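Q: What structure does this chain adopt?
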Amino acid sequence: MDCFPAFIPLAGRRVVIVGEGREAGEKAALFEGAPCALVRMAAEDGALDPSAYAGAVLVFIGDCDEAFAVRAREAAKAGGALLVNCVDRPALCDFYTPAIVDRGPVVGAVGTTGQAPGLARKLKAELHARWPSGLSELARLVERMKTPARAALPDFDARRTYLERLLEGPAAEAALRGDQARALDLAHEALRAASA
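A:
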């Protein structure tokens, strides 16, 4: 493994994107609906001022030449940015942006460390086609059932078995269809049976 894949929590965090062209626009689109403070900045609007990056967890620098990218990266790091990505300049990156399939709390990421972006896009398309759109509702169902399962099934193995079985069957099918109320009823019914 050349790179370690990691998921960075976004809630309440600051993300800065430098640039106004296609590259910056594509990065900004990744954060639509995300619970972060997204800051868009044109290159000429203070991108070389370290204070512009204060508190940033992620910085993307796009739509610029190499010399500007180097200077903007230095400013971001001096300003305390945690991770910086200079689009299409791997040598200037703290991290690479993977091809992402977003299903709410369920996120799939395919990376090739910049070696084969076309392959990453192909694999992303395959995941996108295979993962049902209701997958986020299934994840939310499991999250909602953790506390009741902990109370009804104090034994860890029994609880894990229940939660794993919840991923298949009638409750999962209802969640995937978007019928969260029916999914919860069926999940509670299965929990009563598992704890009997």
